[in-house]
Design a protein that fits this description.
globular
Amino acid sequence: MAIAETTILSGTADTDEVARFAAIAEEWWDANGKFRPLHQLAPVRMAFIRDQIVRHLDIPNDTDTPFKGLKILDVGCGGGLVSEPLARLGADVTAIDAAARNIEVAKVHAEQSGLNINYRNIQPEDLVAEGLMFDIVISLEVVEHVADLDAFLAACGAMVRPDGGMVLSTINRTIKSLALAKVMAEYVLRWLPAGTHDWKKFVKPSELATSLRPVGLDISALEGMSYDPLGDIWRLSQDLDINYMAFAKKD
């Protein structure tokens, strides 16, 4: 797949972080490549997303397209690993990323998959200026990579309609996450390229809640994601020490 040279937007995005992911953008859809952990996390993440949205918006969950009629924004979409399942569930999906290379990869794959997704190389604060609102805003494995957590969440939160919600996933800043999500994952098991994460930028659930509150969002659900080495699969769990997901509602 030939992708044009990328541009990287500044703002709430950390340009060094964005460049790191843009450099390996053509590997987004290789389930055994550098993004293998995200492919493995996909079923767990989508189960949490579906359950929380259905519960919060009180919509039927007995069809293949429960999100039909919902406007959903995927912030930091990368190659579209979350955007595409959301579209298949019936949502009207807008997906944005600070790296043009990621967006080009995502567009090509969506076209090949017959999916209509509005991909844009733009940052959330720029999208706010357009006055757009969404039923649900999603940002997975992104907040630990941004330049300004409060500013990023303020922009994302501004686009959540009243009574809407936001889904986030990230990594807790604990000794356990330093040992397993940083040292083990990057330097021992080589699941991720070395330098993918900065442990100091991992976000505690309490910090996430504090940053969301000023924009009218309150966390209503928290679940951990735990790896089972014997089955080589991820499961939702009550252990928040490493990877976790959060749903926040706007009243």
